[in-house]
Every structure is written in C-alpha cells, then in structure tokens.
Amino acid sequence: MRILLITSMVPDGEGVGAIPKLLHAQLLGLRERHEVTLVAPVGEDPGQAAAAERLSGSDLDAHFADRRRSGSARRRWRVRAELAATWALKGRPWRVVCGAGGLQPLVDRLSAVKEFDVVAVEDNPVSVLRFPASLPTVLTEHEAVRADAEAWRSPRLAERPQAALRARDWRRWNSFLPKAWRRFDLIQVFSESDARAVAEQAPDLASRVRVNPYGMVLPPAADPAAEIAGTILFAGTFSHLPNRDAARWLAREIMPLVVAGAPTARLRIVGSSPPREVLDLAGPRVEVIADAPSVEPHLDAAAVVIAPVRSGGGMRMKVLEPLARGKAAVTTPLGAEGFTGFEDEPPFVVGETSEEIAAATARLLGDDRGRSELGARARAFAERHHSPQSWAARLEAVYAEAIALKERPR
C-alpha cells in the first residue's frame, strides 16, 4: 500500500510520553511492508526536533511543519494572537487549534504530486485537515472516553481562573469529536470502552468503528538485579487527568492497605508535569519524581507496577510498558481494556476495589517466584500481540477495508 500517514507529533521511540513511542512503533511496522509518506508537526517537546532530523536523514519520505517558537518576540505574540482568535471564533479545542497548524500546505502539495491508496490520520488534533474526496481515510481516535470537565476544578484560589478556562475548553470536545469522526470512512480505537463511547456520542457512526490494540517497540527485558525489594511504581503523564486521579487514589487509599500487608512497601510516582496535588502526595511511604529523563531505571527498580486506572480511555502504555519489560503488573478492569481481545489471557492481575488491588500487590511483593513467572508471561504476551509487526498486520486489515469501502458503488 501507499500510505499517507499524518501524525500529531513526530514519531520517536525515545520520546517523552506514550504518543511518540506509539507512533514510532506504528511507523516502524508499516515501513517494513508498505510505502509510507509521513507528515507531522515538530513541537517543543524534548527530542522532537532531533527525531525529525533523524527521520529526514533516513530513506523515509518525511515532511515536517516546524511549530517551534520563533526567536522573534513580535512573531511569537502575533502567532499567539492568531491562535487565540481561532480558538475564540471557531469553537475548537485548544489542542486542535494548535495541532494542525502548518500541515495543510504539506498535505495539499503531496496530494497533488503523489498517489496514495489510503490516508491514516493519527489523533484528533489533525482530524480537521482536508484530503482529496477520492482517498479512503482512517482516523485513529486516541481517546474517545474523556474525563468530565469538572475534573479541572481547583481548590486553590489562584488557580481557579486558569482551571475555569481549561474546563470551558474541555467541554468543546463534546461537540467537536462527533463532527471530526464523521469526516472519515473508518475510525480506529484502542479499546472496547472507546468504541462504546463513539457509539454513544454518535450512534450513526457505530458501524465505522474498529477496535485495534496498539503496539510498541519492545525494550530490553528489565534487569532482575536492579529490582529494589518492596518498590511499587506508578508512571504517567500528569497533563492527562485520569493519571492525576489514579495517583491520588493509589497514594491515599490503596497504599495504606498495601503497607498493612507488606510493611516494607514503598510507592514511587514518576511522571511529567505533576501538578501540586500530585507533588503533595509525597510522604514517608510515597516518593514523587517529576519530569524524570527516562522511566526505564524506575521500571528496573520496581518489584510491582500498578496502573489504578478508573477513568478515561485510549491507550494503556502504563500497562503495556511494564508487560514488555517483563514486570509483574496490577491494574483495574478499565486498565485491562485493549489487552483482552486475544486468544490468551493477559498476564497481569486485575482488581476493582482498593482492597483487591492492595491485596494483590502485597501478595506479589511477598512472592518472588510468582512475580518472576508473571513477568516472563507478560513479556511473551507483548511480543505476540503488541510488537510493531503484529500491530502493522492489524492496521493493514483496517486500511484494506477502508479502500474496499471507498471502491464499493454507492
């Protein structure tokens, strides 16, 4: 296939957060079997410019829009004013206003000079781009289930104006998403809960939705010698509201119950941009590490990884990454979504309540052999179902279906 792949950021296996790693695995898997043209914005996130430079220097047909801040203060303020005016007038969420800027000219130019079989659009910030009507289009919706806007409320007086503005922006997704989804022939989601969310918000689109669990480039297995007895890890990006909720639930309610069953247990919370409410969770049994350059040493040190997800949707990289590293993991039924559609059972422990999660964690901390066996099964599961090659095979099937739908006489 000739695939025009449009992403919301530069694919980067070493990137900060889940999305650049996910995009890197997708690009790697597809390039092995297909002709891929990449279009992406280069932002300010660490490593994005270097990743774009590496891809430009490879044999990939890659095209980038530089979205980094200008060195000119006058130009920076002009760009801010233009973005603010677009946000105020068009009613789009801020991520969408910022996400697609500079990409349309690249798409128009490529569409005029190259032939493509399918357009694959990754994430809703770039869903507003225009494509030739004759081309089949597939949108991957990274998170159809979204936290309630009230989650942006802040008890701190000084933070309330900004929180109110964020809540107003957040509500815009309710009207924006169904409009965006309707522009595409097929919509991919990562889990059944996201598929249900699309069907609830836009019942007429239920037949267009395909559940397709994501993948990642498998990292080296964790070093058993680096494990620190009793260490529990929760890692996440804290600009994502469900991760803030998970951290609070874990530190305040689950962890005291774990300590009751495993007195030497300690919790390590690692993530980017933790707000004050997460930083304040630090205490005698809880360590908060902000903006760590890499989560890998913390995964190595962890005896058990917990992902106490009870809201939100989309990808569960906080579950897949420890599986791929061969770590014993504990999560919730919501955190398990995206791993249960295969012929074999996912190799992690699932608990729904604070008591169930705490009991499972304490039990694993006290069972060296059980942790080791669970971790080995976890890595094998990730290799079978979540490698770039496995994911690319599933993507091919969805793209082929979109092409067939476009060719079918109306």
Helix content: 40-55%
Main β-sheet, spatial strand arrangement:
3-2-1-4-5-6-7
Distance between the ends:
23 Å
Largest sheet: 7 strands, parallel
CATH-level-4 superfamily name of the largest domain: Glycogen Phosphorylase B
% residues in beta strands: 15-25%
Tell me the structural class.
alpha/beta
Give the number of helices.
Answer: 14
Mean pLDDT: 89
CATH names the topology of the largest domain as Rossmann fold
Q: Just give the CATH class of the largest domain.
A: Alpha Beta
Verbal overview:
- This protein has 410 residues and is α/β, with parallel strands linked by helices.
- It has 2 domains: 2-216 and 388-407, Glycogen Phosphorylase B (Rossmann fold, 3-Layer(aba) Sandwich), CATH 3.40.50.2000; 224-385, 3-Layer(aba) Sandwich (Rossmann fold).
- It has 14 helices and 13 strands.
- It has helices at residues 18-31, 48-56, 73-90, 94-99, 104-113, 160-181, 192-201, 241-261, 276-279, 296-301, 317-324, 354-365, 368-385, 388-407, and strands spanning 2-7, 35-42, 61-66, 118-122, 137-140, 186-189, 209-211, 231-237, 266-272, 286-290, 304-307, 329-331, 349-350.
- The strands form 2 sheets. It has a 7-stranded parallel beta sheet, with helices on both faces.
- Helix 8 (241-261) packs across helix 12 (354-365).
- The longest helix has 22 residues, at 160-181.
- The mean pLDDT is 89.
In short:
With 410 residues, the protein is α/β, with parallel strands linked by helices. The protein has helices spanning 18-31, 48-56, 73-90, 94-99, 104-113, 160-181, 192-201, 241-261, 276-279, 296-301, 317-324, 354-365, 368-385, 388-407; strands at residues 2-7, 35-42, 61-66, 118-122, 137-140, 186-189, 209-211, 231-237, 266-272, 286-290, 304-307, 329-331, 349-350. Strands 3-2-1-4-5-6-7 form a 7-stranded parallel beta sheet, with helices on both faces. Strands 10-9-8-11-12-13 form a 6-stranded parallel beta sheet, sandwiched between helices.
